[in-house]
Amino acid sequence: MFLTKPRRKRNRSRLMGAVQINNTSFFVCKNNEGQICLRTGKEENLQKAMLQKMIDLNPSIKKILHDYKIKPNIDTKTLKELAGGHMNETCKIAIGIHSMLSENLKSKISKNIIKEASMLHDLGKVLIPSKIINKPAKLNLKEREIMNIHSILGYELLKTQKINLETLELIRYHHQNLKHTGYPALNCDHNPSDIGVQIISTADKYSALREARVYRRKLSRIESILILYKEVLEGKIHKEVYNALIEYVKAFDN
To answer: Does residue 72 form part of some domain?
Structure first.
């Protein structure tokens, strides 16, 4: 008689977001039992394995990369930088904006959807060439076109991860605006929450303006607010979302 080793149940993790704790980046994952766990951002092999699995599950990603002549390369350095800075900060601002809205607007989109979408909104940048991400000058038209597909790549990466459709739509359209002149273009198959897109988009922009980038200095609170106010006047940002941002900034952005 032969004894066989019992088969271990596969422990599949679903990516939920990324955070930084005490200068260490972590992936936020959910296991088979629905428990939330943290995986250290220093586990580069784990990062690449999780992201490669997402790519393998969705042929559309390879087609997009092929169409834009992008060599498939998972840039985990970019992911760690985003997780430890911009995505984490955007999440805090987005939740803050949501908390400052009127009850009527707040009821149109849940806090959990806003939290999850803002934590993951820039995941697609891990597939954008680092020479474009880190270019210390203005992008040319071709480079800008490639950069702009990061929101679609993020949507496609996460589409196979059992993430709420409303969250996916916010990730896909977090660079849209009220005039629908952002990217990618809206179509009849996609109908994201306008207020949800506005919250993520406004938080994303404010966070980006308040960070130093390779091509410009960090902007002050006043400078950042004035730039966004111009978009309010142009009809691109919802005035109540902008006012909620102002209330958040006065209370928490020192």
So the answer is: yes
DSSP characters over 2-64: ---PPPPPP---EEEEEEEETTEEEEEEE-TTS-EEEEETT-HHHHHHHHHHHHHH-HHHHHH
Q: How many domains does the structure of the chain reveal? A: 1
What is the per-residue pLDDT across 93-103, written as a single tens digit (0 to 9) for each?
999 999 999 99
CA distance 204 to 65: 24
Q: Using CA atoms, how far apart are residues 137 and 79, in angstroms rounded to an integer?
A: 21
229 has pLDDT over 80: yes
Cβ distance 76 to 127 under 8 Å? Answer: no
The mean per-residue pLDDT over the stretch 29-35 comes to: 71
End-to-end CA distance of the chain: 71
User: Residue 22: inside a domain, yes or no?
Assistant: no
Is 63 among the domain residues?
A: yes
For 246, the domain range is 44-252
